[in-house]
Amino acid sequence: MASYASIDDPSAHFQAQLYTGNGGTQSITNTGNSDLQPDWVWLKRRDGNDNHSLFDSNRGVTKELNTNGNGAEGTASNLITSFDSDGFGLGNNGGVNGNGESYVAWQWKANGGTTSSNSDGDITSTVQANTDAGFSIVTYTGTGTSTDTVGHGLGKKPAWVLVKSRSEAQNWHVYHQGLDSSAPHNYTIFLNATNTRASSSSAYWGGSAPTTTVIGVGSDNSSNKSSTTYVMYCFA
Predict the structure, then answer these.
(1) In the chain, is it the N or the C terminus that has fewer CB atoms within a 10 Å radius of its CB?
(2) List of residues 6+ apart from 133 with CB closer than 8 A
(3) Which helix (H) or strand (E) holds 95?
(4) Which of 209, 148, 138, 155 lies closest to 179 in space, CA to CA?
(5) DSSP type of residue 50
(6) Average pLDDT over the chain, rounded to whole?
């Protein structure tokens, strides 16, 4: 595993690209020093109050989540249409490609859409990880057990984790190492809300700090409700 200092060009792992919508279809090409095929794309209109739209190559291009709301995953074929070798394709949806509107696309590389099964935790997860840059995308199905853990594939302790229910409306559930630097590691922030940090016994993160292989998901509905599907974005 390479150290972070060995990354000569960060644009091989992350790029932010500005573009103007055309109301039809178009391909957005990144302009960084390196080609970047994105695995996680976060889109936002800059000159209007449209939703934040998130897509990743674990879930597929037609699956959208919104960080400014708690809604379940939506499906549409005219939002992002492809993850390309140096950018992504857009459909004619006005939320991501309105004619003449200004947008920003934040893009992260994981593993080119190639996933693997991870059994490091109590819950078997599906993971694609970029261990050089310290980023992984994880999908799993909850069990409702308060002591469950999920494998994240980073090989380092995650410092920041975002979790969202895909199959039902639940808050975005956020772990950060700065929220609770010592045991019992119970604090969370809800990304889509304005609340202060919340603590709920061991329901949020199982009462334990992340390790180099797993993170606890507790029993809260926002991260580990039985039979509910989730996506998790992890940063070391």
Answers:
(1) N
(2) 4, 7, 10, 13, 14, 108, 109
(3) helix 94-97
(4) 209
(5) P
(6) 93
Q: Which amino acid is at 221?
A: N
Asked whether the whole model's pTM tops 0.90, one would answer yes
Query: In whole angstroms, what is the distance from residue 169 CA to residue 193 CA?
Result: 13
**DSSP state string for 195-231:** PPPEE-TTTTTTTS---SSEEE--S-HHHH-TT-EEE
Q: Rounded to an integer, what distance in angstroms lies between the CA atom of residue 7 and that of residue 82?
A: 27
pLDDT reported for residue 207: 80
Least reliable range by pLDDT among 58-72, 138-152, 204-218: 204-218
Q: Give the CA radius of gyration of the chain.
A: 18
Q: What is the DSSP string of 142-160?
A: ----TT-EEE---SS--SE
Residue 234: exposure state from Cβ atoms within 10 A (0-12, 13-18, ≥19) = buried
Instruction: Give the CA distances from residue 112 to residues 20, 35, 36, 97, 193, in Å, rounded to whole numbers and listed in that order.
Output: 26, 12, 10, 24, 32
Question: By mean pLDDT, which of 43-47, 143-147, 170-174, 201-205 is the weakest?
Answer: 201-205
Say if residues 150 and 219 touch (Cβ distance below 8 Å). Answer: no
CB 165 within 8 A of CB 159: no
